[in-house]
Design brief:
Length: about 180
């Protein structure tokens, strides 16, 4: 049986860590709801952005890192633009996603698999190679026929090039990933 005091305990170190990594003052959020009201993926999420911000303020590590909205976030920055206190909410969501990834919290496995495939594509090619991205996503999820009906139309319009786009300085991209891994270790 779980002790309710454990669930409600404030992890101040978690809040401090999110603030430090995002360079945002979480105390400035007064729960106006503008971030959630403008969020294009709010309807798909069971945990609104406003609630995620409150969970961070309250030091609720497990609940915040387990929120599906950190994986559903499109990083469009609408929440950031709408915040009356100039909190970069999208950056906070990004930090939470990275923390969840490092701690293996997976609220939305297929979305995490898509993010992983996306980042692998950028690391390997310097930018997204759409066909390779989809192949990696299918390999990770086993969803072989997902959206397969869209491929002929996309190929016909030249939206799915069969070769990656050339990038002049792939080494600079690799260095970015190296620095990220060093900082995450």
């Amino acid at each position: 049986m779980r002790d309710d005091r454990t669930i409600r305990r404030c992890d101040a170190a978690f809040t401090q860590s999110v603030q430090q990594q995002s360079e945002q003052n979480m105390a400035l959020c007064y729960q106006c709801g503008n971030c959630t009201a403008g969020c294009p993926v709010a309807r798909a999420s069971s945990t609104p952005v406003t609630q995620v911000m409150r969970l961070v303020q309250a030091g609720q590590r497990e609940a915040a890192l387990g929120a599906d909205s950190i994986w559903l976030c499109a990083s469009c920055e609408t929440c950031t633009t709408r915040c009356p206190n100039d909190i970069d909410v999208a950056r906070v969501m990004d930090v939470l996603r990275h923390m969840a990834r490092r701690e293996n919290h997976v609220a939305e496995k297929n979305i995490r698999d898509f993010w992983d495939a996306f980042l692998e594509s950028v690391e390997k090619h310097g930018r997204v190679y759409e066909v390779g991205l989809m192949a990696a996503y299918v390999r990770k999820t086993g969803r072989f026929w997902t959206d397969a009906d869209l491929a002929p139309a996309a190929l016909g319009k030249g939206k799915l090039p069969l070769r990656p786009h050339p990038v002049t300085d792939k080494e600079a991209i690799r260095q970015i990933f190296r620095r990220y891994r060093e900082r995450s270790a």
